[in-house]
Write a structure and sequence with these properties.
Layout: H1 16-20, H2 28-39, H3 48-64, H4 69-86, H5 93-105, H6 112-129, H7 131-152, H8 157-173, H9 182-194
Length: 215
């Protein structure tokens, strides 16, 4: 693709500490509290070093709480963000991210819809950083993972946003008409707005809608 622009989804819009600080500190609550504390570090100015630091914290939380899918999810998400910011498609980080997503998928507690949406994002970012090579290889994976996510949760705004924007960008690249349905965009926006922000669950993705017309 001539120019496949994408920006990171670092505007989490969460109140993670409030979500976890009053929970009983047993089992999953320990993991949730630690995850919340780590995510809160991303509220200010974000740097590559900070992404790496928080990702390392997620790895340690995952080692401590191997039955929790959330630390694995954020390990992968932060790794994808790091790759997006560095524009480096020649390292092993993205392979690690995919392994973390697939490991999380095997856990009984996992939100499968969110993991498929994250996997769609994984392929989306691979294309964003090297569209000439990765576009032909992975464009179908983006749609397939979005479809799988929406089969589990038809109201998942992250899957809907990625699918909507990627479809628009693919249509532009192929010089084909890709109708921009304002009602569809409004629906996705409303789904994001309705999400409970007082949680450590995934809440990224709304920002991508504002870049739908970028070339």
């Amino acid at each position: 693709m001539k120019r496949f622009l994408f920006v990171g989804f670092l505007a989490l819009g969460l109140s993670q500490a409030n979500a976890a600080e009053n929970a009983p500190m047993t089992g999953a609550a320990v993991s949730d509290s630690l995850v919340a504390n780590s995510l809160n570090k991303l509220r200010g100015q974000v740097t590559i070093d900070l992404l790496s630091k928080v990702r390392g914290e997620m790895a340690r939380i995952s080692d401590m709480c191997p039955s929790s899918w959330i630390p694995l999810y954020y390990q992968a998400w932060l790794g994808i963000q790091t790759t997006l910011y560095t524009r480096n498609d020649k390292n092993e980080l993205m392979e690690e991210c995919l392994n973390q997503i697939e490991t999380a998928e095997k856990l009984s507690s996992a939100d499968v819809s969110e993991l498929h949406a994250l996997k769609a994002y994984y392929y989306y970012v691979l294309i964003a950083i090297n569209s000439k090579v990765n576009g032909p290889k992975y464009y179908s994976n983006v749609f397939k993972e979005c479809e799988k996510s929406l089969e589990k949760n038809p109201q998942n705004p992250r899957a809907l946003a990625i699918s909507c924007v990627f479809k628009k960008q693919m249509g532009r690249f192929l010089n084909a008409n890709a109708d921009e349905d304002q009602q569809e965009l409004q629906k996705i926006t409303e789904l994001f707005d309705k999400e409970d922000k007082n949680t450590i669950l995934p809440r990224w993705g709304k920002e991508v809608l504002s870049f739908i017309n970028r070339k």
